[in-house]
């Protein structure tokens, strides 16, 4: 039956009165450097490879790239274990390559954001080596969290905190004579000791690191674990296990403590002291949209990843609720909302959306294409994860011996600290991109790829999809081109239109976006002139049949 689309209560996020920063509606493309493009044939992506492929991103129509860590690192956690914050790891190139990449990006009109990892260093960082060599209570230990153990002989960890990757968040040190000593805190892998942000030296060092990269010309930072730097005084016990499940739903003594905001305020002052709009983006897991909005108050960071939306199931009512909450929360502090569907830490959304849906991978891809059009129509900024423009699925059958995710080794029965085996580890979303139909690693590089690419990825390659009007790549290109062209998209206001259950219809100035989340087509009065659709539309006497799991943009 034909359903009417009529205007309902509007959701009008507050529009800031200050100047319009580029970041307020930027589309930012995440380059996972190790898996984007390899120039030297070692099977691992690098900065030169990324630079050579920047024209693809400029052509795609994004505004900025975010590069994951390429700093000197033993790679215990894909580079999120930094041994030298000012050096490029030889795996990824040289400082000169970083400089060239930033310059080339700017020439192409792309901004560059780099990761900064302030919650923890590598255990190979000179500071941590010094700390291990120091005595309990020594100055070098004050840069980290060292504590004596509990129990008669200090044989128990200082508190009950668990590592996000599984197992205890503490590791005991061993003295030069082999006797066990103090314990140190690591919220992630043991190779990632947490820095102590009460130490003035730690604060001063990170100011200097930020300046180093700002001086090189970067346009901002994605701040890793931006919610973790401050721990509750006294490091209190939590009182129960499976703490990783509480992340993002509760304030924990190690996450989302109020004290982190003062650090972000001081970083904002530092960013503002540079010319141009240099930005800070929080990777923060906060229990509610309201608490997340605290990170983007006017004197704090510019953006925060909206993980509430990422976690939202494929359900129109749930999506609408999260969208409303997100816009209201960020709007209340005058910040733009961000929309993100995938990143290097989560199962790719093409696969997530297929889970339990019936209809297999095709269904997941249909939903992923629709979700892309939805987020690009919403007010604010959008983050794209490399390969989503190709509709890449998660690779679920990687051989265990090739896996590198430290979480796998800490939680799998084959790993050192076996608990319950599970999949959903983070290697399957990090498989290198296919650029060409044939050739070594589908054009990723001349020397294979560090994780094997599935055999059917030739047809998902950039080459295969380019020029094919039905391809996901061309859908993204068209959507991003329209987003630049149409003043009603990007930053600004939106309102909901009434729509049948399972359908979302939202209005932006000059434009309507319809999303059908149902497994069957829906017939609607034609909302306007079709601009773009994630699936073919069929018209009949003033009505349009919106295909299942699809999204369309209409000019009005
Ligand atoms: C990064 C992960 C990393 C963790 C520890 C995260 O938020 O995105 O890839 O393992 O921080 O640095």
Tell me what you see in this structure:
The chain has 556 residues and is an alpha/beta fold. It has a domain of 60 residues: Oligo-1,6-glucosidase, Domain 2 (Oligo-1,6-glucosidase, domain 2). Helices cover 25% and strands 17% of the residues. The chain has 14 helices and 22 strands. Strands 12-11-10-6-3-2-14-13 form an eight-stranded parallel beta sheet. A six-stranded antiparallel beta sheet has the order 1-15-16-17-22-19. α5 packs parallel to α6 and α11 packs parallel to α14. The radius of gyration is 24 Å and the shape is globular. About 4% of the residues have low confidence. Beta-D-glucopyranose (BGC) binds next to loops. The site of beta-D-glucopyranose has 10 residues, from loops.
Give me a quick take on this structure.
This protein has 556 residues and is an alpha/beta fold.
- The oligomerization state is single chain
Structural class: alpha/beta
CATH architecture tag of the domain at 126-185: Alpha-Beta Complex
In angstroms, what is the radius of gyration? 24 Å
Going by CATH, what is the homologous superfamily of the domain at 126-185?
A: Oligo-1,6-glucosidase, Domain 2
- Give the fraction of residues assigned to helices: 10-25%
Number of strands: 22
| Biggest pleated sheet | 8 strands, parallel
Query: In percent terms, what proportion of residues is strand?
Result: 15-25%
**Shape summary:** globular
N/C terminus separation: 23 Å
* Ions, cofactors and other bound molecules: beta-D-glucopyranose
What integer is the average pLDDT?
93
Q: Which CATH top level class of the domain at 126-185 fits?
A: Alpha Beta
- Low-pLDDT parts are 6-18, 413-422
Q: Remind me, CATH topology of the domain at 126-185? A: Oligo-1,6-glucosidase, domain 2
Going across the biggest sheet, name each strand in turn: 12-11-10-6-3-2-14-13
The total of helices stands at 14
